[in-house]
Amino acid sequence: xxxxxxxxxxxxGGGMSGILAAIRLxxxxxxxxxxxxxxxxxxxxxxxxxxxxxxCDVPAHAYTYSFAPNAEWSSYLAPGREIQDYFExxxxxxxxxxxxxxxxxxxxxxxxxxxxxxxxKAGMTVEADVVITATGVLHHPRMPEIEGLxxxxxxxxxxARWDDAIALDGKRIGVVGSGSTGVQLVSxxxxxxxxxxxxxxxxxxxMPMPNVPYTEEQREAFRRDPAxxxxxxxxxxxxxxxxRFTAGIIKPDSEEMHIIETIVRDNLEQSVADPALxxxxxxxxxxxxxxxxxxxxxxxxxxxxxxxxxxxxxxxxEPEGIRTSDGVLHELDLIILATGFHADRFIRPAVVTGRGxxxxxxxxxxxxxAYNAISLPDFPNFFFLNGPTGPVGNFSLIDVAERQWxxxxxxxxxxxxxxxxxxxxxxxxMARYDDARTEAAKGTIFxxxxxxxxxxxxxVPMTWPWxxxxxxxxxxxxxxxxFEMVKAGVAA
Length: 492
Hints:
The chain is α/β, with parallel strands linked by helices. 30% of the residues lie in helices and 18% in strands. It has a 5-stranded parallel beta sheet, with helices on one face. A 5-stranded parallel beta sheet has the order 8-17-9-10-13, with helices on one face.
């Protein structure tokens, strides 16, 4: 079947998903692809985050494009710098810089007369027939609202805006935040800091995961035989952990969740010798209610004499340091804010206007959503990768994005073949999906009684609430009865 390869595509975002979309479009022969990236280079979250101790918490060979294996990972869980280098290398290998425009933060996307007009804050305007929104989730840093933050006379740094020039050795350092970033920072800074305090609003359950370095002999074997890479990527134990995790999420009282809870509880009980410290590290919510933290050494590190676990709430920040609710002033030279991101923004604050003046801000007034995390009604030929309500958790988001791209390709086939000029989900299908997803999300482990970035402002988890197997099945073939397809020259 003859395809229209002259359609104009704009991919918004040069992180993992945007790179994937641009490569796949060009491999399909599309001749007019533009990649817009707000920063100076590609990489997304791996460009934004450079803090000490940063690494991936899924196996590196699983956090790799299926079509671009990498034999050079230095360890089972790759450090962030290597992941950024990998994305830079893939960008060069597939010739994406010739279609990439850096320093172009999207300001608006407007649909009219069958065309999307995309404008950037730098003044660039691009017209497109199709827009792929690959802006990701974790790129708008969340600054905590703590009294006196601006009065601190030392250095304040957000983990996502790291300055490599910050002095660390021998300094009195406070890390605020107990997610993956906070845990990684503490593990990396213990032994370097003169004194290190980990300020935790709530402790985290820690899943043990050894991070074994790869030897040069192993890397040479990976180079010679890519099947060895696939053996790690598709390792039955890793795949079983993914399935166990997703099964536990949707059925909090399942055997799978009980296994997870047993592992993390035993990790705490057997790793921390001091009973008082052990109780300070014990969460008061169920495992996986927040995103599980994977660490090979956190419990060992926090038992060192130069590390304090601080669970008393932060009352305020003073010029000399952090004052906690028990009245204690923790004197510090450096405060590191590992306080996460605004996870509900996605493409916002860009103003997105669909068919007939439909407003993305209005559509997302209650919560950010998209049908199967891909499409919205009245936003034709506008698709998300790793968008709202998609799967999130302790598995590879590259696998998620590749499955989503397979779904989007099938939608695009309807347009490139000439079967229609516009395609988007119908309002009825969107409403059915959102109602079913919201109801199912209320029964997941994420809604079992903790605060986390998974929760929307209505308290309902914003995530995919069904199994990963169901996600894979849904992505394999769209239900085109749920889509509105408009032919060229026919008013919607």
